[in-house]
Amino acid sequence: MRWHWLLVALLLIVTFITRFYHLGVFPPGLTNDEISIGVNAYSLLRDGTDQHGVKYPLWFRAEGEYKLPGYVYATSFSMLLFGKDDFALRLPSAVAGGLGVLFFYLFTQELVRGKKKEAFVWLPLIASSVMAFSPWYLQASRMGYEASLGLMFFIVALYLWTLFLRKKSLLFLGMSVCFFIFAMYTYNSYRVLVPLMLLSLFYSERKLLFTFSRKVRVMLVGLFLLCITPVMMFSVTSQGLERFRVTSAFSELQNEPFITRITGYPVVFLHNFVQYFSPFFLSQFQEPNIIYYISKDFGVLFHWEILFLIIGVLSLLRLEWSNVKKMTLILLFLSPVPAALTVGPHPLRSLQMIVPLSLLIGLGILFMVQTKKRLMALSLLVPFILFELFLFLHTYLIHYPILYQGLWGKSKEVVMEAERYDTTHEIIINTKILPSNNLAIPFYNEQLRAEYVNDLWLGPQNPDKPVLYITHKKDQMRWAKEKKLLKTITLDTPNKDFIANFWEL
Amino acid sequence: MKRVILIGLVLLQIYINYLFLLCRSFASYLHFEPSTASLHLTDLIFSDTDLPLLLIRFFHNKIVTFSLDVLNRYATFFDFSLFLHIVSPMGLWGMLFGYYYLFTKGSRLYKILGLALLILPMVEVLIPLSFPYGLGVYYVIIPFQLFSLFGYYHFLRHVDTKKGYITSGILFGLSLLWLVYYNDSITAWCIK
């Protein structure tokens, strides 16, 4: 058993290293959503308001949606410790990615506790290793997005639920529900998943729940409803539905007659739902969500994991009815539901699927190492597994920063370079250069004064100062007769596409 | 009644076959093409700058790139939305139950046949132009449809009669709606 704990410690160390290694610069650049979170988080830290001046808001108005508070407040705390930069912005996600693996290990350990078969002792370690090295989870926990933090809260809630089942203590039940609620306030998917999950868990353990007195039950339900009322009320307002309206899978049916809509909804849902179980989705990159993948050559799982997944499903079916089987099936069928309501398949909205899939892959590996012909099977598979792992590392470390840099933007470089001309020039920036409604400048440098122009520019405000115009290479400056190129920022891609030209007008 | 349900499923699948026979060929991304894979390989090699040639060749060579390409195209066949087109939602349920039945109660021979069925699409991936498309429909689609009937038959045999009828009613309705709403999206999988 000492070996076991040593391996767990080693796994956690490697997990955290893979999350923290060059976190601020890799993935290269910040996306619109990350910048939007960063600006709000810093604004909160500075004067307790969001970017629009609302004091300690529960919902943060962003471009085309309202962001949930969990990740913004977590980033605010991270910025308090590390300052306003890319690393601090991604830190909560990375920490959650590492802790998620730890709590998943503990959760799986609780699930298999009391199992007669000795081999099950290894399931927590195998399944959490699968989770830790999954390209899907790794990428999600290195981006400054809410999905990883939401998933960690969700896994902690599941772990506490299993503790409640073993110890039958109200404390664990209450804490589990609390963490489910935290997940709801962190990422949109859990606004749908948590109520469904709680209903299923409560139904499956109704006998245990009915052992508590009526007063306690009413109090618990009342408290839960009280806590989720704000998020549920918000979810039915036009602001709360804003994101869903944009991403809804049913938007094509919106203008159809009532009967068409009613009959169309289940079919569209079925179409989306089954896609999340397809080897096609699991093994291959899906257009157009390239930033959530590490490359076009990898899907959310490794190819060899699909084989173990199938073996895992078959061995799960043969297992006797137990907590492992019950929990895996509930998670497997509920976790893609939020994503299936939106256009997809979308790897971030379905990230919670990593929990049942890791369990199933772990079961598959466990089954394989127990068979009589394991030596033959493993000698065939291990070279393939090792090769794909090395290929993954090679792709992630060598190809990814070069080929996909353009997708992440280079706003930091543009702003830093513009700073150099701040005192001497009047700066105007083409809106196509910087993402997220021009939030990149306030995020990187609040002092920098710049005017944003599209095609119309009314001319310089101060005729004595030269004008620095930062624009995309492709943009033609019809209104500038004489111009001088001061600087060009390029992407380090093989085709060297320019991203910004600095013209002195 | 069970017979009526199975006949209903057969009729659905005959109509599906008719839809597939209106096409000229399966979509090209289901087929392995050495020239496309070679281009992809060149792309990968050019992304590797400042690395030893041996290392570049270790990761990016024809064996690796071609095998992964074949594997990816084979996995594309197992997009469940394609299976909903091939066997209908009711048939997909039958297929899933069929595999469940095979691996929990089926004999060794049935298990081998069930696994062999999964290898059939590989023929279409690897040698697409060797057979006429019409034949492709028969060796790729019909075995899965027959298997879904086998699975559905066992589903009806093993499940409580009332539950079986209710489930069948829902699935049949869903399958009809599927054909109404996703009739045209078959063109994502085959070229008309």
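Chain B has a mean pLDDT of 85.
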